[in-house]
Amino acid sequence: MSGDKNDTDPSVMQLSGRLAFQGWVSLLFWMSFGLLLETLMAYKSPGYLSDPQRRELFRLAHAHGALLGLVLVAAALWIQRARSKVSRLALLALRAGATVLPLGFLLAGVWHPESDPGLAIWLVPAGALSLIFALAAIAQASRSDA
User: Fold this and answer.
1) Residue 113 CB partners (closer than 8 Å, separation 6+)
2) pLDDT band at 130 (very low <50, low <70, confident <90, very high)
3) How confident is the model over 6-19, as pLDDT tens digits?
4) How wide is the angle at C-alpha 133 spanned by C-alphas 6 and 57, nearest 5°?
5) Is residue 120 assigned to a domain?
6) Torsion of the alpha carbons at 9, 10, 16 and 17, rounded to the nearest 10
7) What's the pLDDT at 63?
8) Of 58, 71, 114, 135, whose CB count within 10 A is highest?
9) pLDDT at residue number 82
10) 14 or 2: which carries more pLDDT confidence?
């Protein structure tokens, strides 16, 4: 039966592999970034400690990046297991949002005026909207699989 959910669809496996790879690389990067932040605190780096705006934005980048890496890995496992029909656009939006949102926090903390985040903070709502669209599409596909 070609429509059976137990059939191995190469395109589904490829999408799942790409999501998993991006998720693991994201976890590697953002967890390493967190270790860098801990090191900056341990050595009392003035460029990091004297700028509360930068500290907050960097912490937000680390937290969101690591969490979204886990979301990517979970999505990869779900797609592989459920063989769900999620649109490629939704998966692209998920991958883009998981990259753009934490990157917006990171870049906004690197270059920012006195009391405001940098212009890169505008990447955060764009990434969030992309993620919301993707998660809604995945939820809809999950509902149709049930």
Assistant:
1) none
2) very high
3) 444 567 778 889 99
4) 115
5) yes
6) 150
7) 98
8) 58
9) 75
10) 14
Contacts 24+ apart (CB under 8 A), 93-96: 93/130, 93/131, 93/133, 93/134, 93/137, 94/19, 94/130, 94/131, 94/134, 94/135, 94/138, 95/18, 95/19, 95/22, 96/127, 96/130
Query: Going by C-beta distance under 8 Å and a sequence separation of 6 or more, which residues neighbour residue 24?
Result: 69, 73
Is 53 inside any structural domain? Answer: yes
Contacts of 21 (CB under 8 A, 6+ apart): none
Provide φ and ψ at 85, rounded to 5°.
-95, 80
Number of domains in the chain: 1
In a domain, 17, yes or no: yes
The owner of tokens 């005026």 is 113
Where in the sequence is the domain holding 43, given as residue range(s)?
Answer: 10-145
pTM of the model: 0.88
